[in-house]
## 1
Amino acid sequence: MESIAWLLNFGNGQLAVVGRRELLHLVPQPALFEVPRAPRHCSRVLIWQDRIVPVWDMLAWLAPNSRAVNASLLAVVGYQSGPRQVPRFGAVLLAEPPARVVVADTQACELPQDQSAWGRIASSSFCHEEKPIGILDLPLMFSGACAGKPAANN
């Protein structure tokens, strides 16, 4: 079975995908607002369509001691926690516009073993151009892990 997904490039060679219908909107040069005392990887929000949307910084999640990234592009994503649940929204910082990719069941592989933080936010992974790419679990990211610390710090 094959599915269409959006390949997200966070910079520094860090890639992940979201489902075709999960990526809703791209925001160039977003105006972001700091959230005091929030985890560094989720310390900013965006006002989008009269909603306060949490913004996920993947590089801060994977390398908590890295330098803060200046956001020039955001992807607004949508998800549901379960059937018939109200849609929720989040955003992720991107280094470049997303690319459309086809993902087949035959590409399934293990998550990168060198970065345990992926296991807290990815439902599974697949091999793309000989590299494991995480499939983001948006409800998990924005409901649970956004409140917590990266696995590398635990």
## 2
Amino acid sequence: MANIHINIGSNQDRKQNIATAISALNALFTNIVISSVYQSPAEGFDGDDFYNVGVNANTELSLKETAKKLHDIEERQGRDRTQPKFSSRKIDLDLVLYAEVIDEQANLPRDDILKYAFVLAPLAELNAELIHPVEQQSYQTLWQRFQSSNECELTQYNINKILE
């Protein structure tokens, strides 16, 4: 059984797309725990604000199978992979952590953890004391350090307000 962390992002029909993704994750994984919703401006392009949500879960699936299932959910929700990396999107499901796996090819732990507040904030919310396998610091410490050295434009909402 692997503990995983997924980041869900959307800036198109945000509430519906995130709710649909969470429902799909609930059907695939066990012990789902969902962070607050973090609203942030689009990064790297002009577009509507994103909602991002972190999800902790357990899975019996392999790393490769887990990544494939997340990709399948995106496809079913109409993710257009022909668009540039930095563009508006209906849904984005990023596998941020897969147990303690360090795998550069699979981008695990995901390098976005140390780059973007909208990835690190929900991760730290759900896993404050968990240690980053490369940095060897807790996610709470990494989040505090990030906040002190970066401008963070995040608005935090209770997930239940979004999923009503």
## 3
Amino acid sequence: MLTDKQAAQYFRRCYTAVDGLWFMKVEEKYGLEAALEVDDQVWKVLPKIQARMLKAMLNVGQGMDALQECLTTRLTLEEFEFETQMNSDGFSIFVKRCPWHDQMVKSGREHLSGTVGRRICATEYSVWAAEFGDIRFELQQQLCDGCGQCVLRFR
């Protein structure tokens, strides 16, 4: 029998594998722009599901504090390496390691990581912010664009 940690590892690996596989298959059949468009549509919905599930599991409501708790929980579960900093009007997350970018590098598709990241991260984190109220998101830097870290700003 698998331990809870092994089961989580199994599902995490399947989750990332299916994301990459369907993207590559859509890209092969219809081209990169079509794959990016479909991926963008997926990431307009998946963060809503994730946010609502974590809100219920963590028993939190709306607002900046709830967003920070749910989002940092999600990043921890997906094995991001990051730090959080409170600001006068919100918070910033500094991502030191992103498993999605790591997967692109590992699969030999690092040259596409910036293209995918600029589009998908902007969509994904904007949806996360909107799920918690009138919160704005700004993508200030990205690892996949050659920066030393991602900077995600919520205000």
## 4
Amino acid sequence: MSDYKDLNVWKISIDFVENIYKIANNFPKEEVFGLSSQLKKAVISIPSNIAEGANRNTNKEFVQFLYIALGSASEVETQLIIAKRLNFVNVIDDELENIMKIRKMLNALIRAMKNLKK
């Protein structure tokens, strides 16, 4: 695997982390150790698992980490929906669109890696 920093899904995920941090930092102060913290951990997990998996020994291991990143994307989506329902954020349409884009890219990368022999 080439450098994970060359992967578009990693680059988009890094940008997504920045956006989510800006949103979470505006949550009520009492949520610093609650939903805000959970959301930040989940969003960081997306590019982190892509990076960790890319540096594993086999494609099978890489795919496993991509699945973890995919799960983290779903976790972020759920937490954003909760934040919206709790009125911590007004609009999440762009973020949900970004999650869908990241998910599609992760699924495409998973398919590609499964088709490689290693």
